[in-house]
Specification:
single chain; 379 residues; Phosphatase 2c, domain 1; 2 domains; 12 helices; binds calcium ion
Length: 379
């Protein structure tokens, strides 16, 4: 079965840091979180460069592993050539979706969690000194959680010329939720609270609740949450709806109630949807639905490309945020996602600032981030 992912990404500076050194990749079917480290602005450079190189590599047809290795090489080269960035590095937790399989690469202490039927499992392994000590039996989980050196990594991207990356796959099902996050989320927010947030059907609500909870727990570090919820493809959902809908209206379609064709979810599904139909009135309705679905799919594909290349500043739940994508919806599908949220309240805008925000002008990423800085969204 092919699954579709609904996603929401939020990155928040937290309450104690002057910069946000986390970076997020939202380039369906690729999603990733990077948490940079290094003095001055180096952490931000490392995570940003890793995210860009990874996304560009996958877009150019590299395997996920090869793209991550290219990201390592890019960060390592920049650190070597520029003394201001010496020693910088970043975590990387990335998933590439293919059908119902999630292919992961991972290094560092960012995390991937799988929520399934109410159960939360951490599917990545932390590459930190304290995690190594826990695995070696020299420290308990409880001691590790408060250890003064808990943020020291045993492996990271960009600190050596070659990196050892964990590679694994997860078979995904309808209803599964994946969370990729930085340690600014998994540190302060306990597992039961993460599980509660991921049980929400609305991914925006889930991501918002996670960031809110990390801030409520003191927000000591940058907080990034990337939530992916897996659903059946529109063709399968539509198939169920059409079959059920016909039966509910009592149309004269023989045996429409439970014997509808089951559709292999390769879209566009015009043929597979229409072919098995038996009633006289049914084919036309199915074909028009298939056309609608095909349009939505194309919009989704185009949206994926646009979302990763244009940005704008607007308001998310009363606070200013930089969005990636277009400020529109195609039917129920938004062609945008929050790229970086801020603490600045919408209500605090001056008239002049409000005019700029309300215009929702499309910009390149750097332009949008500069505007965010001008608007006092971050230092
Ligand atoms: Ca961090």
């Amino acid at each position: 079965m092919t699954l579709v992912a609904r996603y929401s990404a939020l990155s928040d500076i937290g309450l104690h840091r002057k910069t946000n050194e986390d970076a997020v990749v939202v380039a369906p079917p690729l999603y990733a979180v990077c948490d940079g480290m290094g003095g001055a602005q180096a952490g931000e450079v490392a995570s940003g460069l890793a995210a860009e190189t990874l996304a560009a590599g996958v877009a150019a047809g590299l395997s996920l592993l090869a793209a991550a290795e290219a990201a390592n090489a890019a960060v390592f080269a920049r650190a070597r050539d520029d003394s201001a960035h010496a020693g910088m590095g970043t975590t990387l937790t990335a998933v590439l979706l293919e059908g119902d399989t999630g292919h992961f690469v991972h290094v560092g202490d960012s995390r991937a969690y799988l929520w399934r039927d109410g159960e939360l499992v951490q599917v990545s392994e932390d590459h930190s000194l304290v995690a190594e000590m826990v695995r070696g039996g020299r420290l308990t989980e409880e001691e590790a959680a408060v250890h003064p050196h808990r943020s020291v990594l045993s492996r990271a991207l960009g600190t050596e010329s070659a990196v050892r990356l964990d590679e694994f796959t997860v078979d995904l099902r309808v209803g599964d939720v994946l969370l990729l996050c930085s340690d600014g989320l998994s540190g302060p927010v306990a597992a039961p609270a993460i599980a509660r947030a991921l049980s929400l059907r609305d991914v925006d609500e889930a991501a918002g609740k996670l960031v809110h909870e990390a801030r409520r727990q003191g927000g000591p570090d940058n907080i990034t949450a990337l939530v992916l919820r897996f659903e059946a493809t529109p063709a399968e959902v539509a198939e169920a709806a059409v079959t059920g809908g016909v039966a509910a209206r009592g149309d004269a379609v023989p045996d429409a109630g439970g014997t509808g064709p089951s559709v292999d979810a390769d879209l566009p599904g015009a043929e597979s949807l229409a072919a098995p139909a038996t009633g006289a009135a049914r084919p036309r309705r199915l074909i028009s639905l298939a056309v609608l679905l095909a349009v939505l799919c194309v919009a989704g594909l185009v949206g994926g490309v646009i979302i990763s290349s244009v940005f704008y500043v607007s308001v998310d739940e009363g606070r200013l945020a930089v969005f990636s994508g277009l400020p529109v919806e195609v039917g129920p599908v938004p062609l945008h996602a929050v790229y970086r949220s801020s603490a600045r309240l919408d209500s605090s805008l001056s008239q002049r600032e409000r005019a700029v925000v309300d215009a929702r002008g499309l910009r390149g990423k750097d332009d949008a981030m500069d505007l965010g800085r001008d608007l006092g969204m971050w230092p």
